[in-house]
Automatic annotation (TrEMBL), chain A:
Composition bias type Acidic residues, residue spans: 528-576
Compartments, record wording: Nucleus
Matches recorded under Pfam families: SANT_DAMP1_like
Keywords: Chromatin regulator, Nucleus, Transcription, Transcription regulation
Biological-process GO terms, alphabetical: chromatin remodeling; DNA repair; negative regulation of transcription by RNA polymerase II
GO molecular function: transcription corepressor activity
Family affiliation: Belongs to the SWC4 family.
InterPro entries the record matches: DAMP1_SANT-like, Swc4/Dmap1
Name this polypeptide is given: SWR1-complex protein 4
Comp. bias intervals (Polar residues): 580-594
Taxonomic superkingdom: Eukaryota
Species for this entry: Polyplosphaeria fusca
Residue span of region Disordered: 1-33, 520-619
GO cellular component, one term: NuA4 histone acetyltransferase complex
From TrEMBL, chain B:
Record-stated family: Belongs to the actin family.
InterPro entries documented for this protein: Actin (IPR004000), Actin_CS (IPR004001), ATPase_NBD (IPR043129)
Superkingdom of origin: Eukaryota
The protein's name: Actin/actin-like protein
One Pfam family cited in the UniProt record for this chain: Actin
Record CDD domains: ASKHA_NBD_Arp4_ACTL6-like (cd13395)
């Protein structure tokens, strides 16, 4: 591309003059980026040179308080009378308020001020600002009839009940205060009332004013019990139980179920707890501290064990240690390598002198676990804990619960090395062929299992192993089915051809009779499989079956080859894969091996067993 | 930019305040505190003592700091408070309180022009409404009044308070509140146990949600005056006896060695003041002694326990010089004089001053107070133990109190709340009253003059619970 300079050159403009200009322009540019140091005289700043000091030196600007801005002439204040609406009487108090802006601003001098005050005099502010703080407690209310009908008590007179309600309202349900101030003196009225019924002989009134002990000492629980009892009864009266909503019912239950005796016991306990002496308190503190210490130690031990187990959980070792660095891509492989080197190192050390080397460990260093000592040693190596550890604890037999708690698992045989659970899981996903791997992946995806299993514990791995086994079986069955279907299609087309072609070679038919018979059996077997799947197909297949007699052998072979053509590779791989699997997983059921070994030879063997699984696949 | 200044209106939402220039009066045995609500310090702190000189024309009363400390002929010093912590002499108490209010707060009213004799030439002016004039003469004519009372005040005394305020001072609105609650308010607490160690009485008041639990209120005479008395006993019992000469008797003093008799020239009075004056002046010296020498044994354990006394002896003493020049360094004695507050058995005693009751010591008072409170509220109260009163300023008082309370209640979380500034400690009740009376939501609680006229003095029982 042509630069500006080139263009100038082409146009014959002077280059030199321009260059000079740029040089002139550049000078201020170089000075511009150097930041000016604030608050330092320019001469002083120049002494710093090109680099300013790392610590910014700057003079704090003198921050005077902002100047008070004149907001006009001094504001006038008045003593404003006001009434409080929470009061029943109209007590008038005065507070200082800014005088509202005068209507006529252009009056000046004392006269106007005087006028203003005169004008303001009659105005009385009504102060509702603090009304919101004037809250009355909600109280249950009852009428005389209700009281007579439901709320009578042999222990409480009407007067005393009223007194109690009055106190509850006055002290807003502060029971401690209510109890403190509760000082019911039966008034002269009530004593009259006591005498009256005896004269009248009215039984109901006599009940209302039983001769109570003049001043009974009521406990807080007595007061509460009476109040709650009345509240509950009133609540039930006003709202029948069935119509109460959840909150109301909960409240009702709480009120109705109040048990003064229980409350009293609780309080005795509470006071006993409070009145413990110093020794008891110290003992409790000590015990609590001890408990906490034990808990913490247990937690730590659990965590350590967990960690150890997770390391000892032996994964399937990589058997095919291929040559080259690709073998060491996984941590497991690296671990194996390390192990190998370590062993070598140790043997060398042992040969040379027997003194413990950098990485060598004494046998007693190992925290003994139910698993083999070797693995514990590996774990110990990894931690490099070479300090003296306690001698190995004897192996204990753990109960199943304990095994679960400590995450202990026993293995008949453990392979050496440390693997990650995730590696193990990943390995299971992989089949021999890419196609098979993809199929497994697809099946897993269909089942909603993510690629990465977040916590690959041993148990998860076990379950996953089972799952993979089943997926393998499933895929095998599916393959068989496809093969069978292919056969069916071929036979159908053959039948169509036969029907269309008519004249077939008799000798050939005879020669093929034996083989045909075999084929027929096979097909019939496979038919059962297909039958379940599709009715139409079933019908067609029966026709197929019936007309299959005159089929030439070579054609059959051809068809067979055609039908299997696609699957051939996969099958071969699948078989190998399953064999490999069976090697890896000796626990795998015989049927799997049976299927994977047998399906190639004859689908009919499978057909019975596979019916269910094929159905599941369809679902 | 609007910087708040004296001319900007306060933001009411900030503190829910609505000041009505109420006056808060907090009378105590030693001083009477008065000031405007909303301020942080009482503007007027007057001694509750008054001077009385009996002349032919009847008794003359002297009020105020200056008057009662001047050695006037035949001057006696008296106190209107009774020994039970309730006002005894209402007449002079009213005068003292009025003095506290008018001397610094409202000022004396100028005589009404109708009465001052300047307008006498015009006979018609006498027709003015006499009653209105009388009202105007009253000192509290336009200020609501909040008064404080001790927790054990009787109904009669409370009614008397109201009557004085309404009838004699003409206040438009009145309220009476217990000192305990107000002291808790001053510390920002609505609930707690208030330990108030004043001059004449120590009181322990349990307060729940701003209400005094009456059953739990405890009082005892082991307070500041008791400590003063202990010091007197200590002076008397030491050998040689320590002379206690108040300032007013000394003309000039010369320096002497520690423990040596003083060589001061004394003043000579033609007609000396009465003995009560001298005693009152001696109290001033003793107060000084309490402030500068006396120390409370900080604990743990009592002063008499084990080797505590030895430890105290090992500590450096404190020197004190009397007004007449006599001086000495006080060692472990200075612990002993205050020990009686916590351990009455260890108090100094003689024939006239018996050993105080064991129940009267502060830890026992707290224990008693707490035991009269509902169990559920106890732990919460013990978390808010407010310490107030001038005598709690004794050195290491709070340390000891803390130890004592933790010994009684080892299983709860006990917290002492003792404001640091001296003013807040001494005048906590007044400050609480100042806060309360300046709140907007408090206005509905005032007993108005109208209500008083309707219901009589009994309304104070109903309103000021």
């Amino acid at each position: 591309m042509a630069s500006g300079r080139d263009v100038r050159d082409m146009l014959g403009l002077s280059v030199g003059g321009d260059a000079q200009k740029t040089a002139v322009q550049k000078r201020p540019k170089t000075t511009a980026p150097t930041r000016r140091i604030q608050g330092v005289a320019r001469e002083v700043a120049a002494l710093y040179g090109e680099r300013p000091p790392p610590v910014a030196i700057f003079e704090e600007k003198k921050a005077y308080r902002a100047k008070r801005q004149s907001t006009g002439p001094a504001k006038r204040w008045v003593q404003q009378s006001f009434t409080n609406q929470a009061r029943i009487d109209d007590l008038m108090l005065k507070h200082w308020r800014r005088k509202p802006a005068p209507q006529s601003a252009i009056t000046n001098g004392e006269d106007s001020a005087m006028e203003d005050t005169e004008n303001m005099e009659p105005f009385i502010e009504s102060n509702a600002e603090f009304l919101k703080y004037n809250v009355e407690p909600e109280m249950p209310t009852f009428t005389d009839e209700e009281y007579d009908a439901h709320l009578r008590s042999s222990d409480w007179s009407r007067e005393e009940t009223d007194y109690l309600f009055q106190l509850v309202a006055a002290f807003s349900y502060r029971w401690a205060v209510i109890w403190d101030r509760y000082d019911y003196q039966p008034s002269a009225n009530s004593s009259l009332a006591v005498q009256e019924p005896s004269i009248n002989g009215d039984s109901s009134q006599a009940l209302a004013a039983l001769p109570f002990a003049p001043s009974k000492t009521r406990t807080l629980e007595d007061l509460k019990a009476r109040f709650y009892e009345i509240s509950a009864k009133l609540m039930k009266l006003h709202i029948p139980e069935v119509q109460m909503d959840a909150d109301q019912y909960a409240k009702y239950e709480m009120l109705a179920k109040f048990d003064p005796a229980l409350e009293r016991t609780r309080k005795t306990l509470a006071s006993a707890l409070m009145n413990r002496n110093m020794d008891e308190v110290k003992e409790e503190e000590f015990l609590l501290a001890e408990l906490q210490r034990i808990n913490m130690a247990a937690n730590r031990l659990d965590a350590e064990r967990e960690e150890l187990r997770s390391r000892l959980e032996a994964p399937v070792p990589n058997q095919q240690v291929a040559a080259g660095l690709t073998a060491f891509t996984s941590s497991q492989a690296l671990q194996a390598l390390f192990q190998q080197l370590f062993q070598q190192d140790r043997s060398k050390k042992r040969a040379s002198g027997g003194a413990p080397g950098r990485l060598s460990l004494a046998g007693s260093d190992i925290l003994a676990t139910p698993t083999s000592a070797q693995h514990a040693q590996i774990a110990a190596n990894r931690r490099q804990s070479m300090a003296t550890l306690p001698p190995p604890t004897p192996i204990r037999n753990l109960s199943p619960q304990e095994e679960i708690r400590y995450n202990v698992s026993t293995h008949d045989r453990l392979t050496s090395g440390v693997t990650f659970g995730s590696d193990k899981l990943l390995k299971m996903r992989q089949a021999k062929s890419n196609v098979q791997t993809q199929k497994i992946a697809a099946a897993l995806q269909q089942l909603g299992i993510s690629d990465l299993i977040s916590i690959p514990t041993a148990r998860v791995a076990d379950v996953f192993e089972g799952l993979i086994g089943k997926v393998g079986k499933l895929l095998d069955v599916r393959k068989v089915r496809e093969k069978e279907e292919g056969e069916c299609r071929v036979l159908e087309s053959m039948k169509a051809r036969l029907n269309g072609g008519g004249g077939a070679d008799g000798a050939q038919v005879d020669g093929a009779a034996d083989g045909e018979k075999l084929m027929k059996d096979e097909i019939r077997d496979s038919q059962e499989d297909v039958e379940d799947e599709d009715e139409d197909e079933d019908d067609a297949a029966r026709e197929d079956d019936a007309d299959a007699y005159g089929e030439p052998d070579d054609v059959d072979n051809d068809v067979d080859a055609d039908a299997e053509g696609d699957d051939e590779d996969e099958d071969a791989e699948g078989e190998e894969d399953s064999r490999a699997q069976s090697v890896r997983q000796p626990s795998e059921s015989m049927s799997t091996r049976h299927i994977s070994a047998g399906h190639k030879r004859s689908a009919s063997v499978l057909s019975q067993a596979s019916t269910k699984s094929s159905k599941r696949v369809r679902k | 930019m609007n910087i708040p200044n004296s001319s900007t209106a306060p933001n009411t939402n900030e503190y829910a305040g609505d000041e009505v220039s109420a006056i808060v009066l907090d009378p105590g045995y030693n001083t009477t505190r008065a000031g405007f609500a909303g301020e942080d310090v009482p503007k007027s702190v007057c001694p509750s003592f008054y001077g009385q000189t009996d002349s032919d024309s009847g008794p003359q009363y002297l009020f105020g700091e200056n008057a009662i400390h001047t050695p006037t002929a035949r001057l006696g010093i008296k106190n209107p408070w009774g020994s039970d912590g309730i006002v005894e002499d209402w007449e002079t108490a009213t005068k003292i309180w009025e003095y506290a209010i008018t001397s610094r707060l409202t000022g004396t009213k100028p005589t009404d022009p109708a009465k001052n004799g300047l307008n006498d030439a015009n006979g018609d002016s006498m027709e003015v409404d006499i009653e209105a004039l009388e009202n105007q003469e009253k000192p509290l004519e336009d200020s609501p009044l909040l008064m404080t009372e001790p927790g054990w005040n009787t109904v009669k005394a409370r009614e008397k308070y109201l009557e004085i305020a309404m009838e004699e001072w003409g206040t438009p609105a009145y309220y009476l509140h217990k000192t305990g609650t107000l002291a808790a308010f001053a510390s920002g607490k609505a609930s707690g146990i208030i330990i108030d160690v004043g001059a004449s009485h120590t009181s322990v008041t349990p307060v729940l949600d701003g209400m005094v639990l009456r059953k739990g209120v405890q009082k005892s005479p082991l307070a500041g005056n008791f400590v003063s008395n202990q010091i007197r006993l200590m002076f008397k019992q030491s050998s040689p006896e320590i002379p206690l000469t108040p300032h007013f008797m000394v003309n000039s003093k010369t320096q002497v060695d520690a423990g040596a008799p003083s060589q001061a020239s004394m003043k000579v009075f033609d007609i000396p003041p009465l003995d009560s004056f001298r005693r009152h002046e001696e109290e001033r010296v003793l107060t000084e002694f309490k402030e500068s020498v006396v120390e409370v044994w900080p604990g743990p354990g009592r002063f008499s326990n084990g080797t505590n006394e030895e430890i105290a002896k090992a500590q450096p003493g404190r020197p004190f010089e009397m007004p007449d020049g006599w001086n000495q360094v006080f060692g472990s004695e200075r612990f002993r004089v205050a020990e009686g507050l916590f351990d009455p058995a260890a108090a100094l005693h003689d024939a006239d001053n018996p050993i105080p009751k064991a129940d009267h010591c502060i830890p026992r008072l707290v224990q008693q107070a707490v035991s009269h409170v509902d169990v559920d509220a106890r732990p919460m109260l013990l978390q808010n133990i407010v310490v107030t009163g001038g005598s709690t300023l004794l050195y290491k008082f709070n340390d000891r109190l803390n130890h004592e309370i933790n010994t009684i209640y080892p299983s709860t979380r006990n917290k002492l709340i003792a404001p640091g500034p001296v003013v807040e400690r001494k005048y906590a009740a007044w400050i609480g009253g100042s806060i309360l009376a300046s709140l907007g939501s408090f206005h509905q609680l005032w007993i108005s003059k109208k209500e008083y006229e309707e219901h009589g003095a009994n309304i104070v029982e109903k309103r000021c619970r």
